[in-house]
Amino acid sequence: MFKKLNKFIRLIGVERRLCFSIASYTQQILDMEKPKANPLKSMDHWEDDLLERYPDPETSKEKSEFRNYVDSDRDATVREFYQLNHKFQTYDFVCEKEKEFLAFNKREMSIWDALEFLNTLVDDSDPDIDLDQLQHLMQTSEAIRKDGHPDWFVLTGFLHDLGKVLCLFGEPQWAVVGDTFPVGCQFSDKIVYPDFFSSNPDSTHEVYSTKFGVYQEHCGLDKVKMSWGHDEYLYQIVKDYLPKPALYMIRYHSFYAQHREGAYDFLLNDEDREYFKWVKAFNPYDLYSKAPEPPNVKELKPYYEDLIAKYLPETLRF
Q1: Model's pTM, two decimal places?
Q2: Which has the closest alpha carbon to 49: 28, 80, 23, 18?
Q3: Quick one: CA dihedral 267, 286, 54, 45, positive or negative?
Q4: DSSP state of 295
Q5: How far apart are CA 105 and CA 22, in angstroms?
Q6: Which pLDDT tens digit goes with each residue over 45-56?
Q7: What is the 8-class DSSP label of residue 183?
Q8: Which of 144, 151, 155, 130 is nearest to 287 (CA)?
Q9: Cβ(156)–Cβ(231) under 8 Å?
């Protein structure tokens, strides 16, 4: 009897170890399939990729001079980033994010508090330029001011990346930065890494995979849902306060498939075509104003405080 009992106990032990091994193996498989939230070692790597695709026509710098990264390493992380971005940025995903974030119930802050909050987004991986997020934004706005543009244009340069606070609210990189594009219609082959859309379920959807999808020809971009990220988020926060050209620059500055490639002309209406001139005017400042010399934030802060007060309320809901 005791022999049978011992044998039974040993069998239970083997079964438990087997179950544990299977569960452990299953968890390893599940972990492998989980999307990596932040493959980019630096969010600047996305912008570096933009510089390679759209080099400054007014400079003779070689590609290697823009940044001292090992290209293969950076390119691999950018590819991984876009694999995730193109797989998960679906029409339904955008609807979910709009519902979550456009309730504006995360924080209430002044613009300056929001900028300082953004500055807690630490990036230690840039070997060439040791500037924080606020200094990067101020470089853009100061380049715009130097060229004599209207003050709302200067303010737009100063604020345009403020929507990246999404990272500090727990959003993965692929849902914050990267080229933006329409969802709910066919993905253009002019979008960076278009082959990666093969893993996006919308690419085989009976409606979303068609040229016009859920939209009408020349319906206007205001009726079009864009992939979720910092552009749309900030636009929704400030849309009641800034001039329309500024809002176009904020909302579509990452929409390279249109303002550089013209891939979605069939969705634009007359108003879009008129205001995209401002998006194109803003783009060189967005891409080419970064420099190693930091602006004097303390000296410039009073000017920007007055500029913010001219156009925006004391606090905004994020």
Answers
A1: 0.80
A2: 80
A3: negative
A4: P
A5: 42
A6: 656 666 676 676
A7: S
A8: 144
A9: no
Best CA proximity match to 249, nearest among 276, 222, 226, 227: 276
Residue 2 has pLDDT above 70, yes or no: no
pLDDT digits (tens, 9 = 90+) for 213-226: 999 999 999 999 99
Taking the mean position of all CA atoms in its chain, how far away is CA 6?
61
Q: What is the 3-state secondary structure (H, E, C) of 62-93?
A: CHHHHCCCCHHHHHHHHHHHHHHHHHHCCHHH
Name the 3-class secondary structure at 106.
Answer: coil
Helix or strand run (H / E) with residue 114: helix 111-118
DSSP state of 316: E
Contact predicate 154/145, CB 8 Å:
yes
Q: Terminal CA-to-CA distance of the chain, rounded, Å?
A: 71
| CB neighbour list of residue 63: distance below 8 Å, 6 or more residues apart | 52, 55
Closest CA to 229 of 81, 67, 98, 124: 98
Query: What are the C-alpha distances in Å from 220 to residues 209, 265, 299?
Result: 19, 10, 42
The amino acid present at 79, given as its one-letter code, is: R
Candidates 152, 177, 149, 174; CA nearest to 163 is: 177
Cα separation, 112 vs 300, in Å, equals 13
Question: Distance of CA 11 to CAs 6, 24, 247, Å?
Answer: 9, 20, 69
What does the alpha-carbon distance between residue 7 and residue 11 come to, in Å, rounded to a whole number?
Answer: 6
Q: Which amino acid appears at position 251 of this protein?
A: R
